[in-house]
Design goal:
Layout: H1 2-5, E1 10-15, E2 19-26, E3 36-38, E4 41-46, E5 50-56, E6 61-66, E7 71-74, E8 78-83, E9 90-97
Length: 98
Amino acid sequence: DAANVAPHVYKVVFENERVRVKDVTFPAGIPDTGMHTHDLAHVGVILTDGQLVFTEKDGKKETASFSSGSVGFRGPNATHMVANPGSKPMRVIEVELK
């Protein structure tokens, strides 16, 4: 779980039998989260503009740009590490669906 691998990035702020909500702050300047797996499908609500670099377990990298207010979805069992190459922290609310 991402909150266990990178507790400095992922903070659980709410949890019940249906969802787990994390307040996620990716620090600026490329420090990454470490490789982790999201066991649950999740929706990300972007709170700040920025870019993130996703590195898959096979080493493939993808850079994605995000705008404040945008929303994305990832299915279960997504394994990756995430880095923020920007000069400002990037914040996301992540809602995991149980």
